[in-house]
Amino acid sequence: MIxxxxxxxxxxxxxxxxxxxxxxxxxxxxxxxxDVSGNRISSLPTDALQDLPLxxxxxxxxxxxxxxFPSLVSSFYLLQRLDVSVNSLTSLTxxxxxxxxxxxxxxxxxxxxxxxxxxxxxxxxxxxxxVEGNRLTTLPHGFTSLxxxxxxxxxxxxxxxxxDRIATMGALESLELAQNPLAEKKFLTMTxxxxxxxxxxxxMLSDPLLAGx
Length: 213
Hints:
The protein is α/β, with parallel strands linked by helices. It contains three helices and ten strands.
C-alpha cells in the first residue's frame, strides 16, 4: 500500500530487519530521500527508483552484493548523495557499464569489495569520492576529469600507480592513499598539494601544454 503515498518526500526505514523493498516504490512520485541503512537488504529496486526525483539514497550497513545498478539502469539525473558503504558490492554497475550521474556530489562506497568503478566522465558535480577499504587496482576511469572533486579517500585498496594528470585537478584538497601498494611509497603520506606539486614536475617534462592547464 506504500505506493499510495504519492506526496511522500522522505522515507526513513533505518535499523529494522527489512530484507527487500517493494517495486511499488516507483509510485512514490514525490520521493526525494530514501534511507534504508542498517537492514538486511540484498539488492535495491533501482530500476523502480531511477524515475523518482531522488536526491539522497542511503543504504549503508546492509547485505548488498554484486552490482548495485543492473544494466537496465543508465542514469539517476537528480541524485546528489549515494551512500552504500559497509556492504559486499563488487561493482557499482553491471559489467562496469556507464551510468549518468550529473548531479552526484558524494559517492560513499567505502568498505565493499569493488575491484573497479565505471567511467566518471558524466559525473561533473562529484565533490567527494569515498572508496576506502575496497579492492581497486587502478584509479577509476575519468578520475582526473573530475574538476569539482575536493576529497578522495582511496585508502586500503590495491592501487600501484598514480596518474600524473592528478596535478591538473585544481579543486582537489584531500587525497588519502595510505595502505595501498604504491610503487612510490612517498605518496602514501603526502598531502594532496604535495602530491600535485610532485606530479606537476613530471607533466612539465612529458607534456608541457598539459602541465600548464
